[in-house]
Amino acid sequence: MIKAIGAILLAGGAALIGISVSSELTARVRTLAMFCRALEIMRSEIAEVMSPLEVVLQKLGKEIPEPFCGFFSECADEMKRRGDIPFGIIWKKQLNHNALLTLGAREKEELVSLGNVLGRYSADEQRISIERTSRTLESILTVADNDRRRLGGLYAKLGIICGISVVIVFI
To answer: CA angle at residue 128 from 122 to 131, to 5 degrees?
Structure first.
């Protein structure tokens, strides 16, 4: 009886690890897609409407769906509370401390670079930086989505197979 319970726990644990890795790939794709959409809104608001950055962030906080809207709302709130701190620092802090953002090092680096430009330079220079970051994130998104499709199911199945294999070995 104890062997059977142990075997079930081992199989379940290995399956959960595979499913967890697969869901991380999905979360990364979702985060990248959200940032691509947000950057498009940001570009039009800053370059065409000439809205101040704080207003743009508040708008994104309302337009971007949960759970990501909090990132932009927090940036806007932090700008209000701590206006003496450069926006790039606020942006970077939110990128690093928001657990809902599943980003790799390259994506974070691109977004941190963008944060150092936002609100600091002319609308045209901000637009150029947003477009560059958007193109980079879209190419990363394409690769991440291909990885998710190609590897997502593989990781889940591999976890299940490993769990079953361990059970067979121990029984």
So the answer is: 135
Backbone φ/ψ region at 71: left (φ over 0), alpha (ψ -120 to 50), beta: alpha
Share in percent of the chain as helix, strand, coil (round to 5) = 85, 0, 15
Q: Alpha-carbon distance 82 to 77, whole Å?
A: 8
Q: Taking the CA atoms of the chain, what radius of gyration do you get in angstroms?
A: 21
> Where does the chain have alpha helices with state H?
2-43, 53-63, 69-81, 87-97, 105-115, 123-170
Local confidence pLDDT in tens for the 171 residues of the chain: 787 787 778 778 877 888 888 889 999 999 999 999 999 999 999 988 888 889 999 999 998 888 788 899 999 999 989 878 899 999 999 999 887 788 888 999 999 999 999 988 888 999 999 999 999 999 999 999 999 988 888 887 888 888 788 778 777
pTM for the model stands at 0.83
Per-residue b/e over 1-34, b at no fewer than 16 CB within 10 Å?
eeeeeebeebbeebbebbbebbeebeebbbbbbb
